[in-house]
Amino acid sequence: MVTSQTRDLFQLQTELVDMKVDMSVSKAIAQVVDQINQLRNDMHTQFNSLKTEINDLRHEMRDRFSLLENRVTAVETKLGIVGEARKEIRNRFIDYCFKVSWLVLAATVSYFVLQLQLLIK
Q1: What does the alpha-carbon distance between residue 78 and residue 117 come to, in Å, rounded to a whole number?
Q2: Sequential pLDDT tens for the chain (121 residues)
Q3: DSSP states of the chain as a string?
Q4: pTM to 2 decimals?
Q5: Rounded CA separation 90/83 (Å)
């Protein structure tokens, strides 16, 4: 009888220990699952904040590139105007040089003709 009670007590104690272990493991698993869920939520929050920052940066870069594009267009236009003015000045300078050279040639020929007339007389 004592052995049977001892066996029963030992079996009861073993079952209690098993139940305590099961409860502890279940509690630990629940805590791990909670931490995983919390980490997932934190990652999701961080991802959303990173996504927002990237979108803001994208908009800022688009605005800056648009501003740079406007400035480059203005510079190209100004350079085109300056180039056209230089081309016009060069063309007029060459035209005036030809006119002056014709005048100098005409004056030289006239001078020689006048000198020849004076020598002939």
Answers
A1: 58
A2: 678 888 888 888 888 888 999 899 999 999 999 999 999 999 999 999 999 999 999 999 999 999 999 988 988 998 889 889 999 999 999 999 999 999 999 999 999 999 888 888 7
A3: -HHHHHHHHHHHHHHHHHHHHHHHHHHHHHHHHHHHHHHHHHHHHHHHHHHHHHHHHHHHHHHHHHHHHHHHHHHHHHHHHHHHHHHHHHHHHHHHHHHHHHHHHHHHHHHHHHHHHHHH-
A4: 0.48
A5: 10
